[in-house]
Design goal:
Elements: E1 13-15, E2 21-23, H1 27-48, H2 52-72, H3 79-85, H4 91-105, H5 121-145, H6 153-172
Antiparallel strand pairs: 1-2
Helix pairs in contact: 1-2, 1-5, 2-6, 4-6, 5-6
Length: about 190
């Protein structure tokens, strides 16, 4: 199927789901655009990671972040329509991330210092994805403060997903022969 080019965005506007046009500089567009960046960065991390379980978890996060993007691209007045077509982020999805966080954290021994990213290609990509997702989180906080976030669970979910990406990066490097590089000066 060929890519449909309609040029509707040539004037600096884009459509929200279920109607309405906004500036491409609108905070909602910034939030879901940054979330989309995170989804792509997680995809790169998934391609670079070696652990099959990590790859599975990353795909799960990507799919949930597509739902986040859809929620962010839906005007509050159209949110009920969104929930008829898509599964919104629920407390159960956030609790699932909490379970994964506890599972990974319980098996890692982390230094009491900042960890310098770059232990392996997979962990470096995970840390990049985490940083992008944290930027998306800041954009979502802005939406929440402006009263534009219909589902506050999105904010909790994205926060936990960032925590999990950090831990998965450490998990990916757990079997490396060298020590974890910290940000402390020698």
């Amino acid at each position: 199927m060929p890519f449909k080019r309609v040029h509707h965005g040539d004037q600096g506007e884009t459509s929200l789901l279920y109607g309405g046009r906004v500036s491409k500089a609108d905070p909602r567009v910034e939030a879901y655009g940054t979330t989309d960046e995170a989804v792509s960065a997680i995809g790169l991390a998934r391609a670079l990671c070696h652990d099959p379980w990590v790859k599975e978890v990353l795909l799960e996060i990507q799919r949930d972040l597509f739902a986040v993007g859809g929620e962010l691209a839906t005007d509050a007045q159209s949110y009920a329509q969104f929930t008829r077509h898509f599964r919104p982020i629920t407390p159960e999805r956030t609790a699932h991330l909490d379970t994964l966080i506890a599972q990974v954290d319980g098996q890692l021994s982390l230094p009491n210092a900042f960890i310098v990213p770059g232990g392996s290609p997979g962990s470096a990509a995970l840390d990049t994805a985490r940083a992008i997702l944290r930027r998306a989180e800041r954009r979502i906080v802005d939406l929440h403060r402006q009263g534009l976030l219909a589902n506050p669970e999105v904010l909790r979910f994205v926060n936990r997903a960032g925590d999990l990406l950090f831990l998965l990066a450490r998990w990916e490097d757990r079997s490396l022969p060298q020590e974890v590089v910290t940000g402390q000066r020698a």
